[in-house]
Amino acid sequence: MKLSHRITHLTPSGSDGWEVFYKARRMKAEGQPVTELTIGEHDIRTAAPILDAMHAAAKSGHTGYAMVPGTDALRDAVADRIAARTAVPTTRDNILITPGGQAALFAAHHAVLDQGDRALYIDPYYATYPGTIRGVGGDPVAVPARADTGFQPKAADIAANAEGAKSLLINTPNNPTGAVYARDTLDGIAQVCIDHDITLISDEVYDTQVWDGTHISPRALPGMADRTLVVGSMSKSHAMTGSRVGWVCGPAEAISHMINLATHTTYGVPGYIQDAALFALNQGPVLEDEVAAPFRRRRAVTEALLSGQNTVKASPTQGAMYAMLDIRSTGMTGNDFANALLDAHLIATMPGESFGQAGAGHVRVAMTIDDDSYATAMRTLIDFAAMQAT
Ligand code: PLP
């Protein structure tokens, strides 16, 4: 079959830093007891009452085509949650329900990019970002956020790349770095967007996982509500990764076009999934805190273990379910370190390089296994790093 350039070039060929991950999966399949600190997936499952709500909705007949933009009730609930958290007036007309945050990222870029348009994103980055931009015909351009600034992107670096750019994609709390963008970082980003007439796409799927500082949605900053598309999701906040339910929030006109896109792509999200999401949102922050609690505990374990030594340094670990560990004092690349740790101790981490060049010399640890196993694995990693450094 003759395939399109667009699909065959979605992801670059050759080494992309994910080899360690696939190697770990192979070793596991062969029966080796690999400890996986790789993927951003909770070690708990979706709470039983949410599944009960899903079951009840399906049994009551909510199994036909659902409203393409999302049910009124869920759009209202998402709008109310956003308005309550940001004080920006938000109604259902500002909300499109999507199959997860990933589909929201795609819709948002589709809404603002034409073929060949320059689209900025911050490096280190969540793995799908450049491919999502390419998928809508955009030209992805990485802007580095540096370890020595706690991975807070600098407005000057963005401005230096802003000429002709149509969009800027940011993510706070950040995967993979754990950074939560400070007010002055976001003010700087907002100013560049205003100065260069750039649409900001703000990925806030980790907005309930903040351990230090405060999550600020840039849509709430002066002059930004009309030029920001916010991506949200139930995946991380409610341990509903497999349910595939998220949203885009933005100006009503942009949302109306994205609804048209949904009509011609996903045709919406199953009604019983939306009802379960509505039930979950209606539980309020109590459930969100419960889902976030294991990561808060393990983040404290990470900080405590790192404080007793000098070899491994963490970037801020202010939010999200990851710790980005700086292992440059070992003299190894993130890739070499992750490979060697896997071979020596059967502990799988993600090389920082798999999240972009700015992640070099780091490994990302997902805090997604039980507390005791996590502490043991972290101790082993730290001891291993100390051995390499000597
Ligand atoms: N954005 C970030 C930063 C992520 O880490 C993820 C998933 O890991 C997503 C978006 C997509 O999440 P989902 O499509 O499950 O909502």
TrEMBL record:
**GO terms under biological process:** amino acid metabolic process
Q: What Pfam families is this protein classified in?
A: Aminotran_1_2
Top-rank EC class of the record's enzyme: transferase
Q: Which cofactor does it need?
A: pyridoxal 5'-phosphate
Entry keyword Transferase: yes
Among PROSITE patterns, the record links this protein to: AA_TRANSFER_CLASS_1
Give start and end of each Aminotransferase class I/classII large domain.
35-379
Q: What is its EC number?
A: 2.6.1.-
CDD domains in UniProt: AAT_like (cd00609)
Xref: InterPro entries = Aminotransferase_I/II_large, AspAT/PAT-like, NHTrfase_class1_PyrdxlP-BS, PyrdxlP-dep_Trfase, PyrdxlP-dep_Trfase_major
Query: Which reaction equations make up its catalytic activity?
Result: L-aspartate + 2-oxoglutarate = oxaloacetate + L-glutamate
Q: Which residues form a coiled coil?
A: none
Please give the PANTHER family that the UniProt record associates with this protein. Answer: ASPARTATE AMINOTRANSFERASE
Q: Which family does it belong to?
A: Belongs to the class-I pyridoxal-phosphate-dependent aminotransferase family.
Protein name according to UniProt: Aminotransferase
Task: Name its species.
Answer: Pseudooctadecabacter jejudonensis
